[in-house]
Amino acid sequence: MIFLPGASGDGQFWRPVAERLPACDKVLVDLPGAGGVAHSPMVRSFEDLVTLAMTHMDRPVGVVAQSMGGVVAVQAALKRPQAVRRLVLTATSGGVDFSAFKRQEWREEYRSDFPKAAEWITSYHVDLTEQLRHLHVPTLLLWSDADAISPLAVGEHLAGLLPAANLVVIKGGDHMFARDRAAEVAPHIANHLFGA
After folding, report:
1. 2-194: CATH, from 2.40.110.10, 3.40.50.2020, 3.40.50.2300, 3.40.50.1820
2. pLDDT digit string (tens) for 3-40?
3. Res 195 pLDDT > 90
4. What is the DSSP string of the chain?
5. What are the residue boundaries of the structural domains of the chain, listed by start?
């Protein structure tokens, strides 16, 4: 099972959830150049993050991803659907065009908080809408109904696009609810990844 964080880049974001899941191989992936994570000569673009994620897909895996990590996860799953057994996306655009949704802008504050982060972290844009309609990987969409950065309407939109998606709404919580509400979130993830 691999865990991809958001723009903080810190794989430890997922530790509170990972510790509550059944025993298995768990890889908490750091995203070089994001947040406070050191840059790497092997990661010079968003596409390189996707390649990095795929290096952990040498066998069928479950992928759990938050925010920006969700865009990485979706692109990896589109490139190697046979390698992604199940997918969990939380508080992410998932690669759809965000412009139609009323949401809080995060980039200016992020640049202030992480001045050394790679420029492409905040400038990257992609629209995977049409590809998502053909992604048949069983997907759990976990959303907060109070996230101003990735509002519930985005989760509902993704649920309508992805052929094998199930949307679960967590009451309250901000953009970091998956970390901060780990005890509530983990059972949903465990059921999706390890259930029948």
Report:
1. 3.40.50.1820
2. 999 999 999 999 999 999 999 999 999 999 999 999 99
3. no
4. -EEE--TT--GGGGHHHHTTSPSS--EE---TTSTTSPPBTTB-SHHHHHHHHHTT-SS-EEEEEETHHHHHHHHHHHH-GGGEEEEEEES--TTS-GGGS-----HHHHHHH-TTS-THHHH-----HHHHTT--S-EEEEEETT-SSS-HHHHHHHHHHSTTEEEEEESS--TTHHHHTHHHHHHHHHHHHH--
5. 2-194
